[in-house]
Amino acid sequence: MTVSYDRVKYSSDLDNCVHCGFCLPACPTYLETGSEADSPRGRIVMMKKLHEGDVEQKSVDLRRHIDKCLGCLACEPACPSGVRYGDLLDVARDRMNEARPFLQRTARASLLTSLTDPDKLRTVLKASKLSGGLPESVARLLMGDPLGTPSRLSLPQEFDIAPLPSIIRPTGERRARVGMLTGCVMRVLYGDVNSDTAAILAANGCEVLINQHQGCCGALHGHNGFRVQARTLAKKLIDAFTPFDGLDAIVINSAGCGSSMKEFGHLLADDPAYTSRAAAFSALCFDTSEFLDQLGWIAPLKSLPIKAAYHDACHLAHAQRVTEAPRRLLGQIPDLTLLPLPEADVCCGSAGIYNLTEPDMAKSLQRRKVQNVIASGASVVVTGNPGCLAWISAGLTEHDIPVFHPASVLRASLAVDPLFSAEL
Question: C or N terminus of the chain, fewer CB within 10 Å?
């Protein structure tokens, strides 16, 4: 089932692209292949033909090039015409999903369901850990391509950290009252990052409220063309935060989730029951670094003598346009040296489920990122998205260079770690 869309407006949006080529050097897949078909403007030509009925939805060649798009949105800030490429891509993928072979479509939908349901994700992770990775037969179904080598995912040694309490009191006088997204992948794989996020918020005078029943934001579904499911999940998340009155912000530590949640007003603009609620919800959404940078960091920090390179998570830098805030916060840590990272804003290749569906390109971009990290001379990499954390970590395994979320680095530098008090 596809989401209805305004065909006239979509056609107009496609025509906004003037094929100037400014997007080419920003596009990771074009940088790797040099092929016009793997560039944003090349893909827009294919989308236009698909929209006008010149190319069958089931065209394997068309799907291959659009599937190879990371959805990193690096083309959007580079575009002088302001083309909303992400919207065009989401609609195209939504339509193409209906034409995929049944087994491939079902495998992708099942994977998304497993990743975005914490209980199912725990089961999948435990099975994957026992078997040594994703079964190749499943990977082949996801790829829909007999070529290429399925990714073997690098899993953390420990996961499923105990959940945070419902209320985390601020250190000192309360400066803000915030709701916090705990996420799906973040909650299960990187529960420590959630704890670190809550700690640095509390240390800076924030009362942190956590709805224990909150679900997925729908980012992975939306970015992979399952727009019906994305809209349903967005509504449920809005409902989950509705009981929290008087919030100054909804704070998010996952770049992909944040970019989607900031777009709920756009995603649900044609739903009378949610139009105004979604817009109000999106207006409250901030990345953790963005919010703390605006609030003003006041917590005392101790020395952390490390050389760090900051990788811009795509949906933080390109979709949310948040690049300086995390760097400013890290720059306040005594004795931390923030080294320039070549191609810091070029995608690492993780991109949601991309490293499973397009493993060869994902690995190529991973190698590119690893080479740049090594060239930077950094002893630590910092990045604000769970997919980037996992994928860059896997690439750096043999180089003994750990990868951390900014919240984890900032918490490690707190002079005094806040004590949690809970009201369950």
Answer: C
Q: What is the pLDDT of residue 152?
A: 54
Cα distances from 315 to residues 254, 351, 359, in angstroms, run 9, 9, 20
> Which residues does 154 contact at the CB level (< 8 Å), separation at least 6?
390, 393, 394, 397
Pick the CATH number of 300-412 from 2.60.40.2310, 3.40.50.1860, 3.40.50.970, 3.90.25.10: 3.40.50.1860
Q: Are 296 and 51 in contact (CB under 8 A)?
A: no
pLDDT at 51 (0 to 100): 84
Helix or strand or coil: residue 177? strand
* Cα distance between residue 16 and residue 10, in whole Å: 10
CB 227 within 8 A of CB 221: yes
> Which range in 45-54, 116-125, 145-154 is most confidently predicted, on average pLDDT?
45-54
The answer to whether the 7-99 and 300-412 domains have the same CATH topology is no
Residue written as token pair 């491939």: 104
Of 197, 184, 196, the C-alpha closest to 125 is 184
Question: Closest by alpha carbon to 101, among 142, 146, 56?
Answer: 142
* Four-way CATH pick for 7-99: 3.20.19.10, 1.10.1740.10, 3.40.630.30, 1.10.1060.10: 1.10.1060.10
pLDDT tens-digit map of 260-298: 999 999 999 999 999 999 999 999 999 999 999 999 999
**Burial class (CB within 10 angstroms; exposed 0-12, middle 13-18, buried 19+) of 294:** exposed
Structure tokens at 160: 């499923």
The C-alpha atoms of residue 23 and residue 90 are separated, in whole angstroms, by 18
Residues 2-36: pLDDT tens digits? 566 677 788 888 989 999 999 999 999 999 999 99
- Predicted TM-score (pTM) of the model is 0.90
Distance CA 359, CA 219 (A): 20
User: What DSSP letter does each residue of 118-149 carry, written as one string?
Assistant: HHHHHHHHHHHHHHTSS-HHHHHHHHT-SSS-
